[in-house]
Q: What sequence folds into this?
């Protein structure tokens, strides 16, 4: 994996220290740290990192503010502003929060307590998916439509991976190639693959 400039956001200093040590040991750079959602957004805007690792829940905002921005809200802002992909740190029993995070468009999850073998692959996958999203964004201007297209493309990739034994990257490349060959959008190609799979499943 290429060297990444990372932002880490967690209200627990011990977690931030663990993340920092793991990232540095793997050859990455920690360009900013944050302990609240607001701070995470501020640092992301200032530093423009390659990836952000954000705790799913963080405490209320600094003194003087009535309501705080939690990790999911911070992730939503960072993604909406097209700064970088976000990987969320979660704990067991947070299914409802994970559902919210999915709607915000996060690119991956790591469950606490985590180890290097959990963290680094999640970062690599998140960055790869973010680059795929950039390709889709060039086709689709509106962010919400882009996120919907991403969901369809993810499903179509899964179908191709299962049907042809492809890796995730190769499945995306096949979708890209089909899009160019047929002069159709990635969304149209994904929808066609999903429809064909649904029809095939219905005939069994």
A:
């Amino acid at each position: 994996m290429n060297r990444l400039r990372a932002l880490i956001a967690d209200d627990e200093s011990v977690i931030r220290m663990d993340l920092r040590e793991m990232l540095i040991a793997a050859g990455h750079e920690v360009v900013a740290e944050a302990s609240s959602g607001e701070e995470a957004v501020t640092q992301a805007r200032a530093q423009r990192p390659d990836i952000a690792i954000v705790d799913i829940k963080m405490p209320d905002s600094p003194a003087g503010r009535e309501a705080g921005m939690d990790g999911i809200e911070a992730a939503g802002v960072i993604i909406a502003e097209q700064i970088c992909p976000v990987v969320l740190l979660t704990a067991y029993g947070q299914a409802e929060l994970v559902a919210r995070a999915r709607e915000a468009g996060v690119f991956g999850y790591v469950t606490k307590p985590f180890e290097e073998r959990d963290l680094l692959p999640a970062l690599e996958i998140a960055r790869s998916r973010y680059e795929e999203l950039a390709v889709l964004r060039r086709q689709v201007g509106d962010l919400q439509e882009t996120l919907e297209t991403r969901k369809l493309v993810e499903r179509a990739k899964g179908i191709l991976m299962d049907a042809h034994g492809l890796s995730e990257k190769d499945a995306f490349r096949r979708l890209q190639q089909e899009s160019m060959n047929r002069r159709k959008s990635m969304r149209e190609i994904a929808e066609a693959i999903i429809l064909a799979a649904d029809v095939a499943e219905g005939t069994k």
User: Anything to note?
Assistant: DSSP finds eight helices and five strands in the chain. Confidence is low (pLDDT under 50) at residues 61-66. The radius of gyration is 18 Å.
